[in-house]
Amino acid sequence: MEMVQTKDIPNLIVFSETLQALAEIDRDILVVTSDSRGSGKLVPFGEKFPDQIVEVGIAEQNLVGMAAGLASMGKKAFAVSPACFLTARSLEQIKNDVAYSDNPVKLIGISAGVSYGALGTTHHSLHDFAVLRAIHNLTIVAPCDNFETAESIRQAAEMDSPVYIRFGKKGMPTLNRTIDPTFRIGQGRTIREGEDLTFIGTGEAVLPCEEAAEMLAEKHGIRCRVISLHTIKPLDESLILAAAANGQPVITAEEHSVHGGLGEAVAALLFQNGCRNKFKIVGLPDEYTVNGSQIEIFDHYGISGKGLMGTALQLLGSGSGK
Amino acid sequence: MTDRELKLKSVEYRQKILRYIYHAKAGHTGGSLSCIDILNVLYNQVMNVSPENFDDPGRDRYVQSKGHSVEALYVVLADLGFFPEEDLLTLCRYQSPYIGHPTKKVRGMEQNTGGLGHGLAICSGNALAAKKDKLPLRVFTVLGDGEMAEGSNWEAMMLAAHYKLDNLCAILDYNKQQITGANADVIGLEPIRQKVEAFGWVVREVDGNDVCALADTLQCLPFEAGKPSFVIAHTVKGKGVSFMEGVLKWHHGVPSPEQYEQAMKELEEARQKLLEEVVEA
Ligand SMILES: [Mg+2]
């Protein structure tokens, strides 16, 4: 496997370090936190740049409304809060003050998905893609690894339209960068080539796609393509349609409800373009989420190398497994 | 602008508010008539905002938190020359930018508002950014009394005091009524002065339909260095039209042809009276 292996660093840490590097040269970069500087690994940021961090207290509506007011004055405001609160408590501020008013706030949803594991549903964000996809004028990004995290933060800083970026806090290996060494918000990255099946993953669900593809190749001689679709909106339609063009199965994987996320976005695209590939959305089913750590929850619902391999073999059918 | 000129503007603005609401057959009549004196004084006497300086980062900022009273803001912006007044004949029409709440599609509008409890947080962000950039500008918002029930207002109040945003001024259009009835019957907000003071703001009370009193009050900003300013502007919903004043149904009532004629007649009489005073003086 052509993995560029590095020490597994949480995307959260990479986010904080990237932002510190940016803040050093750009005084307009402001971090806004809702008592979340510790959870956001932003304590060093606050120590280095005390004039560039704004604390609002545990008040997420105010976090986003205030950030909109900062952004409309030309500040590059990064509003940082756990994704669960940021995209629910302050949803109306995101819809009206950020997206509708076109204030280019950078909304950073930390510890996204089920990163908080056993802290439970109050702390999970399995709805954020769904609710935010339905809001006009908002880019939605879920980087899969350190590389995509750093790049997405750097590019978000220069965007003049609103963006939401969400990631977790678990250490992440950097995935293959030899096939597509570039990163552009809005353009998915193919990190493994293959023609028998395509995995389309986003965020921390890309790693299990890569693991499944590796096992399918080794154990079954099945060659899978893996796409990191870090940008949920706008969707990279041409990349997805090209991947589906040979009619082989497509599996999507996301740390999100199966309703309204990446999978349904891809399904709508494929169906409306006449693609009738075998297709499966892997994510969190519509039920009370099982209790456990992030990795246990992933395993429980098949968002794992083994689980995705099983789904792939099912779709390929006994006869097509080479 | 002289006191009399300001008074005359208010009457003319009221005529225009009714004209365009009547033409559109839609609008928030009562609230627009209650807050128009505040907007008149802000734009004609207090703020340094004009079509000429609207792209200047140093201009003062106004965000209307009670977005539904947009007709009041439209007629003032048109009067300042942000857009031709006759554009307002398209108010609420298909594909018109002049919708029933402020949008930035209309030149002169700083933010899109309409959901309640949003203006103060945005203004706090504006004010904090101005402080960081050492810009001497000031930030204003007009709040409705009904929207004081939104918790987000109180989050922003805590923040503005914490960051000593004395370049921020919130004006409460306190007409004591909201869509369902009297504030006191819906959800009481009294003692509002003490509540706002307890949040670290300096409060002044004024007759919010008296342009001279408003101008005097708003000339003294900030009321205290290091603290945000809050003006409780006691107003009357439907102010200026006898049969609308304090009558709940005019929250978003549209006058019949007879009512429209009557209202315009009353306002024209008020205008003539002021013109005579101007001549005498
Ligand atoms: Mg009221």
From TrEMBL, chain B:
<dbReference type="InterPro" id="IPR005474">
    <property type="entry name" value="Transketolase_N"/>
</dbReference>
<protein>
    <submittedName>
        <fullName>Transketolase</fullName>
    </submittedName>
</protein>
<dbReference type="InterPro" id="IPR029061">
    <property type="entry name" value="THDP-binding"/>
</dbReference>
<comment type="similarity">
    <text>Belongs to the transketolase family.</text>
</comment>
<keyword id="KW-0786">Thiamine pyrophosphate</keyword>
<feature type="domain" description="Transketolase N-terminal">
    <location>
        <begin position="21"/>
        <end position="258"/>
    </location>
</feature>
<dbReference type="Pfam" id="PF00456">
    <property type="entry name" value="Transketolase_N"/>
</dbReference>
